[in-house]
Write a structure and sequence with these properties.
Elements (H helix, E strand, L loop, with lengths): L1 E8 L9 E8 L6 H12 L18 E4 L2 E4 L5 H8 L2 E5 L8 E3 L2 E2 L2 H9 L20 H5 L18 H5 L6 H11 L7 H8 L14 H5 L6 H14 L7 H16 L4 H9 L7 H9 L15 H11 L7
Parallel strand pairs: 1-5
Antiparallel strand pairs: 1-2, 3-4, 3-5, 6-7
């Protein structure tokens, strides 16, 4: 199989700006992207830098961007990549922020590891140092983790996250999925502390913009977005939720659906922000002109609104306290 790769090259110590080098390779039909990078390094240009280690999708070190999508090089068959992206495959680092580039496809992931560290990604429990028997976990308790323990910390979700792009303080999908991995573990004794931390505005679950890019790029099927929604529920269930704009937005959303069967966007902002709603008046006027918000006396109701209300009441387990 013949393939063409364009590979991002940049050595901040020597180059004024990044460029792409083009390689034509002859590889086996079952080759993966890591094979192509190895072929370039071993036969064409030994100066190419990239990370690699286990080659089995476990260490996460070979994560790169392929035609705009974050992938593990060792788990990406080239034949499928050509079908998805076309004849020319473009390989780039997870982030092209020049301050992060160490060389070529190798980046400094300090920002990623710092956030991983902040959520204390380990079991917090008073465990006997000399147990006389195994501390077994029941199958249903393992199922409750929903594969959150499959995370290999490759960073694919972190560097695809639109919320991090807009807010550098946001913990990101990996750290939040890792939080759920322990908050859902019955052995962990720091559940409330963990939830109080990710409930904080500016860094926690309320700052996810729900783009779901993390689902698309996760090579292990962890689905960080769903773990973030589970953390929302746990925050309410454990009585951790505060009456801030984010929690009231979630509550206002439910009230709107129960009342109208559809979202009343104008009242949702008023419910969430209270008197601070005045700062949104310019946007409200534009939305009013385009019919995005309605006056209370003109607000339509969905057909079958009573049935929708019953469904919401059946599925709703908690409300804001206080």
């Amino acid at each position: 199989m013949e393939i063409t790769l364009k590979v991002y090259r940049f050595n901040p110590k020597k180059d004024d700006k990044p460029h792409f080098d083009k390689y034509k390779l002859e590889l086996r039909e079952d080759a993966v992207l890591l094979d192509a990078l190895n072929e370039i390094k071993w036969k064409f240009d030994g100066s190419l830098s990239y990370r690699r280690s286990c080659r089995h999708g476990i260490c996460g070190s070979c994560a790169v961007k392929l035609n705009g999508k974050n992938v593990l090089a060792c788990k990406t068959p080239l034949k499928e990549a050509i079908e998805d992206f076309g004849e020319v495959l473009i390989v780039e680092p997870l982030s092209k922020n020049r301050e992060k580039i160490i060389k070529d496809l190798v980046i400094d992931k300090k920002d990623f590891w710092d956030k991983n560290k902040k959520v204390k990604p380990y079991l917090i429990a008073n465990i006997d140092e000399h147990p006389e028997k195994e501390n077994l976990v029941k199958p249903e308790e393992v199922e409750a983790l929903e594969n959150a323990d499959y995370c290999i910390a490759c960073g694919c979700c972190f560097y695809a996250c639109e919320s991090i792009r807009a807010n550098k303080d946001f913990l990101g999908p990996q750290a939040l999925a890792k939080t759920y991995r322990f908050s859902a573990d019955g052995r962990d004794e720091a559940k409330k502390e963990r939830l109080e931390f990710v409930d904080k505005l500016g860094i926690g679950v309320w700052d996810c913009v729900k783009c779901q890019a993390c689902i698309e790029v996760c090579p292990k099927g962890v689905d960080p977005f769903t773990k973030i929604t589970h953390l929302h529920n746990q925050i309410f269930e454990e009585g951790v939720a505060k009456k801030n704009v984010a929690a009231k937005h979630a509550e206002g959303f439910v009230h709107s659906i129960k009342k109208h069967g559809i979202l009343d966007e104008g009242m949702l902002v008023l419910y969430s922000e209270g008197i601070n709603v005045a700062r949104h008046l310019p946007e409200a006027m534009e939305m009013l002109k385009k019919g995005k918000i309605k006056f209370p006396w003109n607000m339509p109701k969905s057909e079958g609104v009573e049935e929708i209300k019953k469904l919401v009441e059946i599925s709703q387990t908690h409300e804001l306290k206080g």
